[in-house]
Every structure is written in C-alpha cells, then in structure tokens.
Amino acid sequence: MSYHNLVIYELNELYKIFEEIKKDINFDFEKITKQELSNLSSNTNCIILTKKEIPGFDNQIIFDKFPVSIFKILEKINIEFIKKNFQQQSEISIGNYMFNINSREMFSSSDKLKLTEKEISSIIYLLKAKKPVKIKELQSNVWRYQSQLETHTVETHIYRLRKKISKVFKDENFILSKDDGYEVNKKK
User: Fold this and answer.
1) What is the largest CA-CA distance in the chain?
2) pTM for this one?
3) Long-range contacts made by residues 76-84, C-beta under 8 angstroms, separation at least 24?
4) Which of 29, 38, 102, 141 could pair with 90 as two cysteines, CB 3.0-4.6 Å apart?
5) What is the pLDDT of residues 85-97, one digit of tens each?
C-alpha cells in the first residue's frame, strides 16, 4: 500500500507548517483532537505524530524535545512510512497460511516452514494468477528458461515443494494440479 497518512496530535504549530508546505510533501496528514483520538482504532493504518507516547497505539513518532529542524521531522516521518510499507509488503495471507516474503517463511498457527527464493516466487506467481498456470509460463516467468528447452525443472520443483508443505502442514491441497496447470488453493 503506497497511501501514506499521518495523524498529528497536540502539535498545532507543526500542523500549520505542514499546511504551508503540503504541495512539497509526499503524504497526507490531518490534525485530530483528543475526542477524535479516542475514536481512533489502535490498529489504525496511519502514523501518529505526537509530543508524548499514547498507550495502546503502534506506529507513533514522538517529538518531545524542541526545537527540531523541519528536515529532521520530515526525514523521521519518511523513514517510518518506509518501514511501515516494508512490513505490509512482506507479509501475505493465503488460505490458512501467512508468508513472510523477506524471511521466506510459511506459517500456520502452529508450524513454520523455511522456503527457498524460487519456492516463494513460485507461490506468489501462482497466487497472482487469475487461472491455473501452465508449466511453460512458470518456466519462462519464474525460472527464466526459454520455452524451446525441454526440461522437467518446474514439475520437479513443484513436486518437491508440495511434498515439503505436506510434510510440515499435512496439507496435500495447497498447490493444486489442474488439467491446464497449477494453482494455489486460496480457501481457508
């Protein structure tokens, strides 16, 4: 998600400065009152800029020592948005499983499986496909092999991946073989 939203709490002067420079910053912002803060969910998808820590909220930037350079403030905000995007993009939910793309791990509520880069790439490619994916398509788009090559790399790789998933999660149906290719079972 590339949409950035900053909530400014109890920093009215900073809000006024942001209003003056809003055409030069790459995020949306709003000022909220104490009442609006109490209505804000603790798992909100924004970053809160405040003078003191607000219990129960993640994603806070606390500025309690002044004066502070506007450039330092903007740098800190941008770093927090980059971290937030990295976290959001690194975890994917598929059916009963969570995938951490950065650590290349597949999780269920009780088990964890380490995957290779090709395995995670294959799963993500199958996930994004709207229909079953043919072997030749996986060959060229995940392995970057030319379609003229006669190879069983994809079939072998998918077979081993399915076996690995079955051994750890006892799930024979995560990657499904269809007449027209492979697909990921997205159902819970």
Assistant:
1) 67
2) 0.57
3) 77/6, 77/27, 77/47, 77/49, 78/26, 80/47, 81/4, 81/27, 81/47, 84/47, 84/59
4) 102
5) 777 778 888 989 9
Token representation of residue 67 = 């004066």
Q: 């750890």: which residue's tokens? A: 168
Long-range contacts of 141-150 (CB under 8 A, 24+ apart): 142/118, 143/118
> Residues for the chain: how many in total?
188
Using CA atoms of 17, 19, 21, 22 in order, give the dihedral in degrees to the nearest 10.
140
CA distances from 169 to 111, 147, 148 (A): 7, 33, 36
What is the SS3 assignment for 5? strand
| Encoded tokens for 31 | 């000022």
Show the tokens assigned to 167: 């051994």
Q: How far apart are the first and last CA of the chain?
A: 24
What Cα–Cα distance (Å) separates residue 42 from each residue in 125, 169, 182? Answer: 33, 32, 40
d(CA 129, CA 33): 44
Structure tokens at 60: 């806070």
If DSSP codes are grouped into helix, strand and coil, which group holds residue 147?
coil
